[in-house]
Amino acid sequence: MLTTALLLTTLATAPAPSLEMPAPLAAPVAPAPKAKEHGVDAIVLPLVSYNSDLGFTYGGVAGAYLYAPGHAPYRHAIAIQTLFTSRGQQNHYLRYDGPRLIGPLRLEMRLEYRRELRSPFYGAGNVSAQDFHGNENQERFNYTKGSPGAWFRLRGRPWGDNHPFQSYVGYGWRYTQVSPFDASVLQDLKPVGYEGGATGQLTAGVLWDTRDNESDPVRGGVEELSLRVSGSATGSRYQYGGVTLSERRFWQLGSRVVLAQRLTLDALFGEVPFFEWVNTGGVTFTEGIGGMSSVRGIERNRFAGNIKAFSNTEVRVRAFSFNLFGAPVYAGGVGFVDVGRVWHPDTVDGPWWKWHPGVGAGLRVARRAAVVRFDWAMSPETLRHRVYLNFGHMF
């Protein structure tokens, strides 16, 4: 039951469920049990966490797994989540995952509704909102947003399950409702997207994945090139496109130490609505600059623009490991340095060396594909600090 619960947590919180099960770097570990090939697992779990961007989160997730021979780790999986935060946000979804649904192709689908009573907006550019002094809840730097949407993606390995090359295509549609506060930055600037509306995106990408493990790697890496296009033909009110380049690399420095590095460059062009400035493309959802998925220690989405670049460096230490109900568990720590910046047309972005850093440390507990992380981070620019409790590695 615990194994199923952690697998469900991974499905519920990660962009793409892992197909591999990690093992500790040190200490002999018993072989993993043979994959289940028949039957059904189902479970309901509460979800409780906290981070400085969203406050306390609470809700629940339920899911079921259908197993069949030749389908690993399962044939079909479905999960449903309802989630609220103490800062007035909601995130509800229904998700399906079929790892080998259409021959060797993996189908992922998600229907969701998000609502934010205070969604951050500080304007465009790398030195935006000079009058912001740390109170991220004030109406001047927020607006109310509602965004029902859905997406699907087909992923495959055209040259075999063990070949590092992967490709994917997908489509996503979202309707964004925008309600600015009086005297807010959004009300003053009225950028493209101020009226809200539909955004439909066609996406395509390729990956070269040599990681030894998808959810908790210790060596190898993954390079990704992703494209996205929105226009009237895709059901979008706005005509724009984007390209994302990403590199994730992992080095095993010793029996218990891993150096992890991520580099991301994302560029948008065309009639880009302001609520897309903070989003990057690719298999893994990332937003920023600022927040627990880009530069920790900086307020969520503090800097936004058509071009974003950021780097994340982590030293992960596995302090000790043990077996729990037949599966390995490890606990350890991490130290990290994040840095990022944006560029935006017709804005003052500061000198070339004006990058925004975040530094910090954290704890990790992992069992197979499920990783629980706690991070403390600080911005050296402002000396403000933030904490994050979440599931899964940052990258």
Brief summary:
With 395 residues, the chain is mainly β.
Describe this structure in words.
The chain has helices at 2-13, 185-189; strands at 40-51, 55-66, 76-85, 89-102, 105-120, 142-156, 165-180, 197-209, 220-230, 240-252, 257-270, 307-324, 327-343, 356-367, 370-378, 385-391. The chain has 395 residues and is mainly beta. The protein has a single domain (2-391), classed as Porin, CATH 2.40.160.50. The chain has a 16-stranded antiparallel β-barrel with strand order 1-2-3-4-5-6-7-8-9-10-11-12-13-14-15-16. Strand 14 (356-367) and strand 15 (370-378) form a beta hairpin. The protein starts with a helix and ends with a strand. The model is unreliable at 1-33 (pLDDT under 50).
Largest sheet: 16 strands, antiparallel, barrel
User: SSE order, as H and E?
Assistant: HEEEEEEEHEEEEEEEEE
* Total count of strands: 16
Spatial strand sequence of the major β-sheet: 1-2-3-4-5-6-7-8-9-10-11-12-13-14-15-16
Which class of secondary structure composition applies to the elements?
Answer: mainly beta
> What is the averaged pLDDT score?
89
Radius of gyration: 21 Å
Beta content comes to over 45%
Portion of residues within helices: under 10%
Subcellular location: Membrane
Protein name: Bacterial surface antigen (D15) domain-containing protein
GO cellular component, one term: outer membrane
Keywords: Membrane
List the helices and strands and how they pair.
Elements: H1 2-13, E1 40-51, E2 55-66, E3 76-85, E4 89-102, E5 105-120, E6 142-156, E7 165-180, H2 185-189, E8 197-209, E9 220-230, E10 240-252, E11 257-270, E12 307-324, E13 327-343, E14 356-367, E15 370-378, E16 385-391
Antiparallel strand pairs: 1-2, 1-16, 2-3, 3-4, 4-5, 5-6, 6-7, 7-8, 8-9, 9-10, 10-11, 11-12, 12-13, 13-14, 14-15, 15-16
